[in-house]
Specification:
GO terms for molecular function: catalytic activity. This is PLD phosphodiesterase domain-containing protein. The chain is of the alpha+beta class. The protein folds into seven domains: 8-139, no CATH class; 151-190; 202-262, no CATH class; 279-354, no CATH class; 368-478, no CATH class; 492-726, no CATH class; 737-846, SH3 type barrels (Roll), CATH 2.30.30. 38% of the residues lie in helices and 18% in strands. Strands 14, 15, 16, 17, 18, 19, 20, 21, 22 and 23 form a ten-stranded mixed beta sheet that branches. It has a five-stranded antiparallel beta sheet with strand order 28-26-25-24-29, with helices on one face. A three-stranded mixed beta sheet has the order 7-10-11.
Length: 848
């Protein structure tokens, strides 16, 4: 076996970890001569070596280990977030806030020397500073011969100066004072007046500076102001120039930059403007803002804007889900070819897309799965967010197996890091012993409410890791469902459409000048918006619908009734419509239940269209229906408050909306229509079966009548996260051609009655059978009557029917007596046919 390579650093430090498994490309090294001066000094400090002489190479692992290229959280395998206590001033671990610089390491008298890049707490940092001062007092002392030559004029004390030794700068200052003192003594002894040219010069200088300030303050041109500042004294620091001229340090820095290149009062050329944003890219930015926000559902959540034609119109407000920096970063990731700065990106924000914190942006639909971990992290001083902690639990945030199986230890990905690693990381980076945080909890007495919880660090970390493991699957579903909708919206065909639907809160019909008691007995109307996306030759279009009803319950039969009114309109809107993609929230009362799934499994039979029903992740609904219901309710309310017309019933709202809200297509479904629909669906509902694990599935696709394919993620319908579910088990099992042969006696359905017949011929290719009927129909039999089988004549009492009309096979009915032309039907056979005929009718009712 080949001997492992070692660099010079590993050899002298007696280490053998140059070939670390963390190195993807294997062993690599650099020559020490390639290191910069600062990197060499860092290496000396962090290895505690006195010299790099006779050392030639350093490997990639030790470059990372001693963090020569960056300020890392770990240096030399040690966590530098806490104080490394070089002076042994404290026994417990303390939070570090001061980084050891190269100058502090050099100037501090301590053995071993302070390690550059490590951190100190306040107490250790102050102690190091005190050692630094002592070193300056003891070492930085310089004697100057000039001080001794002044003895011919007298000692320092004679001139009012101290006799202590000083450094070079102090010596120069004292020498200047000595010259001034000597000149004063000589002028006094010789009775000579000293010329005060400096006073006159100072007055002229002050006058010139005052006029320069006046000119600067009067100027409104940024270019001219930069030119004037080139006349400011170069000995002044930028802060003093900014203070004297009452300007920003930025313009001072700009003026000194051009002064260093062109001198005073240069001719400043205007900078060329950058690349202009095209109108097309501006529309992309505006569209991105709308995609990254969601509509406010409230009546008053609107804003008035004036378009290019000067027309004022109201637009429903939209709440942005991220701050401006995060949105700009996401835009750059999504559109890398569009170069746009943060300020311009903010400038292009549509007025109706507003940030949280503005008046009226109280957000009450936050996801509890995301919010509780966020609240726990807000209680500690940790530089990472919940997404960074999630990344420490899995191989990839995009891998559904890693993310979804976090809470199932037996099914977790074998390559995912152990949760113990995250636990250890949190314990090493949280310095408080007890932590108090806020969280949302649910109880039977108070419902969902926020409480303050205090826990010891071990309990806190265990709970946080558990919540993050539960959050992993929910976080994946939220991202993937949103991405699937966006991708589908761009790629669906012209024979498909996307339908977004959502119940609004029932609208209370408003009457201006109503009596007080009417407030508690007023009528309401159900509002159910639909937003339809479809394709034309001009691109993707959308159409808005809103169903109004006096049926106030939100249940599966009302949803089916609304769809029965909507589908015919969609067939007109989209030519040759073959498939509908539904998107809704997971409300169990009306969408995500066995009754709605039973209707979905019969969608092809009911409407001759295929369908797929997709659900958003809980509390992550991005639905344009919020904008429709907010707009419709606001317009209804405004009209009612004018008092010009009184609406008493939901049908009145419907009639007014059809005439006055042209952008929304209104439909009206009465409560009687919904009750009639329930009567037709009752048998289907009674036979429906609950899908095990309904809440975890987010796509339900029709396979066949009564059968659905259910998937956890919409974009992975064929993965291991999918299964098949029977929603409506059939009581009646149709007979196939292979079960029949000529001369069999069967019961068939014809003209809504059941008959006894003999099979004379079978056409297997077409599933057609030729039958000879016994007379009369079995449904018309009375006690004591018998069946007759007519003579075989060509075309007499024979008929060709589909196999699907056959109820069941029977034993041939016996003759009443020898030589009789009548046939008797035994009672047990009669009962069997009657029961089977009832099941057959129920089955046929489902497919009508």
């Amino acid at each position: 076996m080949a001997e492992a390579k070692l660099c010079s650093i590993a050899t002298i430090l007696n280490k053998s970890d140059c070939n670390s498994k963390r190195l993807v490309g294997g062993y690599s090294e650099r020559n020490l001569t390639e290191l910069t001066k600062s990197e060499k000094e860092l290496l000396l400090s962090r290895t505690m070596l006195t010299s790099l002489d006779n050392l030639t190479t350093i490997c990639e692992h030790h470059e990372r280990y001693f963090s020569l290229d960056k300020q890392a959280s770990f240096i030399g395998g040690m966590n530098i977030r806490s104080c490394y206590n070089p002076f042994n001033l404290h026994s417990n671990k303390r939070k570090a806030s001061k980084v050891i610089s190269l100058s502090l390491s050099r100037n501090t008298l301590v053995i071993p020397q302070l390690i550059v890049g490590y951190k100190l707490c306040i107490e250790c940092y102050q102690h190091a500073a005190s050692l630094n001062v002592k070193k300056q007092e003891n070492d930085n002392v310089v004697e100057y011969p000039a001080m001794e030559s002044a003895s011919s004029f007298g000692s320092n004390v004679e001139f009012g100066l101290s006799e202590q030794k000083v450094d070079e700068n102090m010596g120069n200052r004292k020498l200047g004072k000595i010259f001034d003192s000597v000149a004063t003594e000589l002028s006094s002894a010789l009775n000579i007046t000293l010329l005060n040219e400096s006073g006159q010069n100072s007055e002229d200088y002050s006058k010139l500076l005052k006029e320069l300030k006046t000119k600067f303050n009067a100027s409104t041109s940024f270019t001219e102001r930069k030119q004037l500042l080139t006349l400011a004294p170069s000995s002044w620091p930028r802060s003093r120039v900014a203070e004297e001229f009452q300007c920003s340090e930025y313009i001072v820095r700009e003026s000194r930059s051009i002064y260093s290149k062109f001198g005073i009062l240069p001719k400043v050329t205007k900078k060329k403007s950058g690349n202009k944003i095209s109108e097309e890219n501006k529309l992309i930015v505006a569209s991105f803002y709308e995609e990254s926000s969601r509509f406010f559902p409230g009546l008053k959540d609107s804003i008035t804007v004036i378009n290019k034609d000067g027309v004022r119109r109201k637009i429903q407000k939209m709440l942005l889900t991220e701050n401006i920096s995060e949105l700009h970063y996401l835009f750059q990731q999504q559109y890398p070819n569009i170069r746009i700065g943060l300020s311009k990106f903010f400038e292009l924000r549509p007025r109706w897309c507003i940030f949280a914190g503005a008046p009226g942006t109280h957000n009450v639909c936050v996801c509890i799965y995301h919010q509780n971990p966020k609240l726990m992290l807000e209680a500690i001083d940790l530089s990472v967010g919940y997404k960074d902690l999630l990344a420490m639990l899995v191989c990839s945030l995009q891998n559904e197996e890693c993310m979804y199986m976090q809470c199932e230890s037996s099914r977790r990905c074998g390559n995912c890091p152990s949760p113990d690693i995250l636990t250890e990381y949190l314990l090493n980076n949280i310095f408080e012993e007890t932590i108090t945080y806020k969280e949302w909890i649910s109880s039977d007495e108070q419902g969902v409410h926020m409480v303050a919880t205090t826990q010891h660090i071990e309990e806190y970390v265990t709970k946080l890791v558990g919540l993050l493991q539960k959050l992993a699957s929910h976080h994946l579903i939220a991202l993937r469902q949103s991405a699937y909708f966006k991708e589908l919206k761009q790629n669906f065909s012209s024979e498909e459409c996307i339908v977004m639907l959502d119940f609004a809160e029932n609208y209370s019909i408003l009457i201006q000048d109503e009596v007080q008691s009417h407030h508690w007995s007023g009528k309401q109307a159900t509002l159910h918006p639909f937003v339809v996306y479809y394709k034309t030759s001009e691109g993707i279009k959308n159409k808005c619908y809103c169903v109004l009803s006096d049926y106030l319950k939100h249940d599966a039969q009302s949803v089916h009734s609304f769809l029965c009114a909507l589908i015919p309109k969609l067939k007109v809107l989209v030519c040759n419509l073959k498939k509908i993609h539904f998107f809704s929230d997971g409300a169990g009362a009306h969408y995500k239940n066995k009754y709605n799934f039973a209707n979905l499994s019969f969608f092809q039979t009911d409407f001759q269209i295929s369908a797929v029903w997709n659900f958003w992740a809980s509390c992550h609904v991005k639905n344009a229906c919020d904008g429709i219901r907010g707009t419709v309710k606001r317009l209804f309310r405004q009209h009612a408050l004018r008092g010009q017309e009184i609406h008493l019933e939901p049908i009145d709202l419907f009639n007014w909306g059809v005439l006055n809200i042209p952008n929304v297509d209104f439909l009206y479904i009465s409560s009687q229509e919904i009750e009639n629909c329930y009567a037709r669906l009752e048998n289907r509902f009674n036979r429906s079966v609950t899908v095990k694990g309904t809440r975890k599935f987010h796509q339900y696709a029709v396979l066949s009548q009564g059968k659905l394919k259910v998937s956890i993620l919409s974009d992975q319908p064929n993965s291991l996260l999918s299964t098949t579910a029977i929603i409506v088990p059939p009581n009646f099992v149709p007979i196939s051609v292979s079960d029949l042969k000529s001369s069999d006696c069967v019961a068939v359905v014809f003209q809504d009655k059941w008959w006894i017949a003999i099979i004379s011929e079978i056409e297997e290719d077409t599933d057609i059978v030729n039958l000879r009927f016994y007379m009369p129909a079995g449904s018309d039999l009375i006690d004591g009557s018998g069946l007759k089988l007519p003579r075989r004549r060509k075309g007499a009492d024979e008929m060709a029917l589909s196999v699907s009309e056959i109820i069941c096979k029977l034993p041939p009915p016996p003759r009443r007596n020898r030589g009789s032309k009548l046939y008797d039907l035994p009672n047990e056979t009669f009962v069997k046919i009657v029961d089977t005929f009832k099941e057959f009718k129920h089955w046929r009712l489902d497919i009508i």
